[in-house]
Design goal:
With 367 residues, the chain is of the alpha+beta class. The protein folds into two domains: 205 residues, no CATH class; 146 residues, 2-Layer Sandwich (Alpha-Beta Plaits), CATH 3.30.70.270. It contains 13 helices and five strands. The protein has a five-stranded mixed beta sheet, sandwiched between helices. Strand 2 and strand 3 form a beta hairpin. The protein is elongated, with a radius of gyration of 28 Å. The two termini are 44 Å apart.
Length: 367
């Protein structure tokens, strides 16, 4: 039970790296088809905006006519935006979600036919699919809450008899209204969070090392940019650690023992690092720790070195060579900054290894 709560807490606190996610889709050639499908969705909304007044079977009033024109304009701009322009930045994407949600609910409230109102709810559920993929659980929770509220308002209009098409039986209208609420609760309150959680879990698995449970190299790359950009002003360290003579451990005692050494090393690094630090196994017997620097860089590296040297559960002494690079997060940084940090800490680690191992070296210059 505790592990289930822990994984759901991690999911709730996760902030989707929107830019990295878009880059991933782009690297696989998926953004083009996605843009076409989203633009086509706007074309469908445009058709619905044109057909809605006809479906209501009466001459639209001024309010309905203006709303129909606004909805058609929004749908047309949406279509052209997705078809002709590059993929939007995160804040523009969120702005489109807010605009869409407001437009759909306004259209529902002024509709003179409950079928048209229910179609608006369906469009809100469809937008929820986009939110579930490209934005975090908290944004999805806001969208789900907004959609459920819209469903309740729609049910009220049906039960109050303010929408044409209601039955002569009040009981039938109540049943229909409750049905709308229940269906939307299942679709947006259950299916969409389940879809997003599953998407997050698969992404988490792809960014994790299956043996140690730490981040893998891809996971480190995905989190390092947000770690550098999201911290308060101060210094951040990147420590690269490589186990000394690890090949001899595998050759002498076999790979099963080597795997246990790696697992114990991961546990010790987690314990030695701060709770919000990034800890990754980047390949073989190499690990990387990224965290806020609260001490002298050499002392920080020494703490990590001692954590590994303190492992006494095996018939062989386990030590590590540690390299530390430091970065001032108040300074401007680019993708090259991340690469330079890793390269500098890696170079310092090799200096420690060439000096005999079981030592700490700090990069000569701050990035």
């Amino acid at each position: 039970m505790n592990s289930s709560r822990s994984i759901f807490r991690r999911w709730w606190r996760d902030r989707v790296d929107y830019d990295r996610l878009v880059e991933t889709f782009a690297s696989h050639g998926a953004l083009g088809p996605f843009k076409f499908m989203l633009g086509t969705g706007g074309l469908v909304m445009l058709c619905l905006a044109i057909l809605a007044p006809i479906a209501q079977g009466e001459a639209p009033g001024n309010v309905i006519a203006v709303q129909g024109f606004v909805e058609a304009a929004v749908a047309g701009v949406w279509t052209l935006r997705w078809w002709l322009l590059p993929w939007p930045r995160e804040y523009e994407s969120l702005a489109w979600v807010v605009l869409f949600d407001l437009d759909a609910v306004i259209n529902e409230l002024i509709a003179h036919n409950r079928l048209i109102g229910v179609l608006g709810l369906v469009l809100l559920a469809a937008m929820g699919g986009y939110v579930a993929v490209f934005h975090g659980p908290r944004i999805l929770a806001l969208h789900v809450g907004w959609t459920v509220l819209a469903s309740v308002l729609m049910a009220y209009l049906m039960v109050s008899g303010e929408l044409p098409g209601t039955s002569a039986s009040r009981g039938a209208d109540v049943a229909a209204g409750l049905g709308v609420i229940l269906v939307m609760l299942v679709v947006v309150g259950v299916v969409l969070p389940f879809m997003q959680f599953s998407h997050w879990l698969l992404r988490l698995d792809a960014l994790s090392d299956p043996l140690t449970g730490l981040l893998n190299r891809r996971g480190l790359d995905a989190h390092l940019s947000s770690a550098l950009g999201g911290r308060a002003r101060g210094h951040l360290f990147v420590a690269t650690l490589d186990l000394d003579e690890f090949k001899a451990v595998n050759d002498t005692y076999g790979h099963p023992l080597g795997d246990k050494v790696l697992i114990h090393t991961a546990q010790r690094l987690r314990e030695a690092a701060e709770p919000d630090a990034l800890v990754a196994r980047t390949g073989g017997e190499e690990f990387v720790v990224v965290g806020a620097l609260h001490d002298d860089p050499a002392a920080t590296g020494e703490r990590l070195r001692r954590a590994i040297a303190g492992i006494t559960d095996f018939p062989v002494t386990i030590t590590a060579s540690v390299g530390i690079a430091v970065f001032d997060t108040s300074r401007a940084h680019t993708e090259l900054t991340y690469s330079e940090l890793l390269r500098n800490s890696d170079s310092a680690m090799y200096r420690a290894k060439h000096g005999g191992g079981n030592a700490v070296q700090v990069a000569a210059t701050e990035v």
